[in-house]
């Protein structure tokens, strides 16, 4: 009887040892599974530092003014060219009217300058014609003076007659000199008047540029969507005054979505441009997306920070850097699920070893 009890105890002890060993092995397997699939310790193929990115366009005002109308709501889908905000146009209409008046004044100034040029040119022509007449009379008088000189030497005319001809030559010469001075003065007046014409042309051009600027500013009172996308948070209200360059909203260009994965240095050898990556988005757990690596950053993320790290200070601590990698969605993704992906969502992926 005692021998039988010992055998039973020994057998129970063996079963208990096997059971404990089995439980221990199962526990180790569970711990290994948790570490591998959830904690990912020392798993260089696992990436959870990735997010959905897209171009976000700031929408700014180019001109100052009071807001009359707002034609969008937060998170509203818009198309390129849709009207978003309309500013008060009163001051800009007045600016156009003033610019048009300035242009008319400059054009009238050119007409007046053209008339002055014609008048001065006509006076110069008149002086030139008079000079030709006096020149002809002077040439005849000089010829008569030479003839009378010979006659006086032969006592064929009196001294008084000779002196009359001589006086006539001097008078005509004086008239010619006076007309020549008038001609020079007329030339200077013509040049000066023509320069006024050039100034008038410049004033017209400046007035035309001012009118175009005023018309352009009027156009800027209607702020439109620069691209297709979804509006972000609205920070303005009707009646508010905005300054040039002030941001009134942001536009998310959803058509440009991609995934940016910040990979560790040791993970870079596992990828190359053109590789196809499969990943999931935390908000859409049961759906797997496909992407293609299109670019790998030429520098680590820290080099693009406002104050890049400087390892020459003497207190260097080695930290493994991360390198941004751009992954674009392929055409194989379901558009229905792709529309649910939002910018900033977290992405999880496993690289091929």
Automatic annotation (TrEMBL):
GO CC list: membrane
**Residue runs in coiled coils:** 162-189
The membrane-spanning stretches of this chain are 14-35
- Is Ligase there in the keyword field? no
Q: Which Gene3D superfamilies match?
A: 2.40.30.170, 2.40.50.100, Helix hairpin bin (1.10.287.470)
Q: How does it sit in the membrane?
A: Single-pass membrane protein
Q: What is its main location?
A: membrane
Record localization: Membrane
Q: Which UniProt keywords apply?
A: Coiled coil, Membrane, Transmembrane, Transmembrane helix
Does Coiled coil appear among the keywords? yes
Q: Which residues form the Multidrug resistance protein MdtA-like alpha-helical hairpin domain?
A: 127-221
Q: Which domain of life is it from?
A: Bacteria
What Pfam families has UniProt attached to this entry?
Answer: BSH_RND, HH_MFP_RND
Q: Which residues form the Multidrug resistance protein MdtA-like barrel-sandwich hybrid domain?
A: 59-252
Report what the protein is called: HlyD family secretion protein
Q: Which organism is it from?
A: Bizionia saleffrena
